[in-house]
């Protein structure tokens, strides 16, 4: 176990506490505000009472027309349906009595066996029962809310204090981790030096200038060819399509060069849009073949260049030279290949030239 892992575990524990709190709160809210909790039950009783009071108004009117009789029966049925639930039956003894009253009253109304005024008086009992249910449900709701508030306050205190403790421990562990890092400062500095001397271009994955120099030194005495490749009007490409597309073109060109020149070739990005390739080469005819192959492969790839002033696709300027590898020959070979590249650019680009062996 490291100090860093302990610090991370502390912060993970803090997240667990927060998640636990969230998972606790939602079920509690569901429990306290469900139908049996109070709010819905109180609303059902209120609706049922309103239907009965509406039915009373119909019964107390001077005369009942046919449509009013239908409305009366509908209100009684709706009131019956809203009070006829298990919660009311189990918790309130007046529920069954009220249901029986409504059932008998409905039958007598259908048989015209009761006076409207008497029927309205008989509804007072169920209305009183529903009023009692409403009040009790409101009391239960208040009690549930109070209990929920107390539990929430208690949980918040627990979460606050535990989070504070965990956070402080996390900071302490992180401090210990920083202290441990300082003790290994020398090793870290050595790693940074090694990283600075790394010989890989981070964008394309091929070598860089340092790698080119090192490879030439390591192959001293061998007959090699240095090929310099420059993308024509690369700045215009970047300006028109954006740097992300320009980076993508650089990666695609690196893959194309690697494919064309073969596994014996070593590729380098010297900066910007300038590439270099070092390949084993014993005669100029082979070097000419390499340059032709790169040009032909690029034409087949048909990389679009909408900002090219002379063409609709990407073109290259290539300068090459054949030389014998050695510690002091790279600069000479590079200068010769660069002069050939400059001649191509001066002549209008989209071509290649080679310089006599350096």
From TrEMBL:
It is an enzyme of class 2 (transferase). Keywords: Membrane, Transmembrane, Transmembrane helix. Its EC number is 2.7.7.65. Pfam families: GGDEF. Signal peptide: none annotated. One of its GO terms (cellular component) is plasma membrane. It catalyses: 2 GTP = 3',3'-c-di-GMP + 2 diphosphate. Residues 222-357 form the GGDEF domain. This is diguanylate cyclase. It comes from Halomonas qinghailakensis. The lineage of its organism: Bacteria, Pseudomonadati, Pseudomonadota, Gammaproteobacteria, Oceanospirillales.
């Amino acid at each position: 176990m490291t100090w860093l892992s302990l610090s991370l575990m502390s912060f993970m524990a803090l997240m667990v506490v927060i998640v636990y709190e969230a998972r606790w709160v939602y079920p509690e809210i569901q429990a306290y505000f469900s139908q049996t909790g109070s709010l819905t039950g109180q609303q059902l009783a209120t609706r049922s009472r309103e239907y009965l009071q509406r039915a009373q108004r119909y019964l107390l009117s001077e005369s009942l027309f046919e449509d009013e009789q239908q409305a009366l029966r509908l209100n009684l049925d709706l009131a019956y349906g809203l009070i006829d639930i298990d919660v009311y039956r189990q918790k309130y003894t007046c529920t069954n009595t009220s249901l029986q009253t409504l059932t008998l009253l409905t039958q007598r109304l259908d048989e015209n066996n009761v006076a409207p005024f008497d029927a309205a008086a008989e509804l007072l009992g169920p209305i009183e029962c529903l009023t009692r249910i409403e009040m009790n449900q409101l009391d239960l709701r208040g009690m549930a809310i109070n209990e929920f508030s107390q539990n929430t306050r208690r949980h918040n205190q627990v979460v606050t204090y535990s989070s504070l403790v965990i956070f402080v421990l996390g900071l302490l562990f992180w401090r210990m981790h920083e202290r441990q890092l300082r003790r290994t400062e020398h090793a870290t500095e050595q790693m940074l030096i090694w990283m600075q001397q790394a010989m890989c271009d981070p964008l394309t994955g091929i070598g860089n200038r340092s790698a080119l120099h090192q490879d030439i030194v390591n192959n001293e005495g061998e007959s090699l060819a240095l090929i310099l490749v420059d993308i024509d009007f690369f700045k215009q490409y970047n300006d028109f399509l954006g740097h992300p597309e320009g980076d993508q073109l650089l990666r695609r060109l690196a893959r194309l060069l690697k494919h064309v020149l073969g596994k014996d070739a070593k590729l380098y990005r010297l900066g910007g849009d300038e590439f270099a390739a070092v390949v084993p080469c014993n005669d100029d005819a082979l070097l000419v073949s390499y340059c032709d192959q790169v040009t032909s492969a690029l034409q087949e790839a048909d990389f679009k260049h909408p900002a090219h002033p002379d063409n609709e696709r990407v073109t290259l300027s290539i300068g090459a030279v054949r030389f014998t590898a050695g510690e002091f020959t790279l600069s000479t070979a590079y200068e010769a290949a660069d002069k050939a590249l400059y001649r191509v650019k001066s002549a209008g680009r989209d071509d290649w030239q080679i310089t006599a062996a350096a």
